[in-house]
Amino acid sequence: MGNLSVVGAQWGDEGKGKVVDLLTARADIVVRFAGGSNAGHTLVVDGKRIVVHLLPSGVVHRGKVCVLGDGVVVDPEGLLRELSDLEAIGLRPEPAGLRLSARAHLVLPYHRELDRRREGVSEALGTTQRGIGPAYEDKMARRGLRVCDLRVPERLRARLQAAVEQVNPQLERLGGPRFTVDDLLPPLLDHARQLEPFIEDTGAFLQRALAAGQQVLFEGAQGVLLDIDHGTYPYVTSSTTLAGGAAAGAGVAPRDLGAVVGVAKAYVTRVGKGPFPTELAGEEGARLRQAGAEFGSTTGRPRRCGWLDLPQLRYAARVGGLDWLALTKADVLSGIEQTKVCVAYRWRGKRLDTPPVDAEDLAQVEPVYEPLTAFSGSLREVRDYEALPAGLRELVALIEREVGVRVGLVSLGPQREQTILRHGFQAAP
Ligand code: IMP
Q: Is the pTM of this model over 0.70?
């Protein structure tokens, strides 16, 4: 199968962590190419639950090289915290096992403060408040600080000075604190010292590795519908979440990305604000949330829950260039009565197969549902596709027919072995 790119096909939290974890078996290198510590991958390894935010989920595999690519935004303090959490369970990577791009932009304390302050005002988006949006703003405005700046203290001081002059008036308007270089610099120099062994020109590293025939897995964060260009703007994150962005965000050629695996849950969740046509309010939503333990791994927020949305998935498959789908949390639908799947939208007297462009229009569509044959009982021991309940096989067939993408993996629980592979999809080399 060669290299692989794994991306979320919905609004994030699709269970990419488990899928990447399985597929890491067939890779030498795992690369994150966008986003920052707004992500949260929950991994269960040997019965231990681990949440990583910035580090790729491949980090729990010994012997694999993890890369934080050029397109990632790195909070040095948060990264060091994750490394020390891993150290506590004996999984801290050696410098050779973690490569941090010298080109990646930094998320600094004033970015987090700005994100928090802005979220306090009425037009809030429901961000993760990790400073992601403000850091990408600085990057695009060509005034951001990068990992390479950590290596040259006098440059770091000068760039921080320019940054605080720019950010303090904004913070003042929002009732926030003033930042000074004298406060920011000493801890940052300490972080720089600790991170120095990991810093590298990761694009060049990956190009060498690819030329030597190493297998690379590109690990996306968030999901297609949170993409800055193709998501439900403005209720999106500030980076490219599609596999299309992986080449630029990792510094490799598009031809190196390999097949694209989209991860989709058997239902849909969303955190933060924005339109959600199949959202279940009240009792029904609460039941799905409970059954699927749908609480944010980064913020702890209860996730909004709803039925699987095929117009959304069709769109994700097309714009995201999905070659495969991995269907996760299929077991959660077991025991849920009157399960439905949205197959189209009705909007202004028309039937739509994909979402309208504007988020305000998407908020007005009416889902057209098809019922699924209900099923119940634990599926966690099932290892054979044909042994799955008819209702679940019906769902998989419906997805394949309507979306036009093969479902190569069905996940029936958080453990690695609670997985069924189909159509020759390989989790191991
Ligand atoms: P930001 O990325 O923190 O700026 O948040 C922007 C939007 O993306 C908000 O709706 C967040 O809830 C959402 N978001 C960001 N990261 C994730 C994620 O990893 N999973 C789900 N939603 C996310």
A: yes
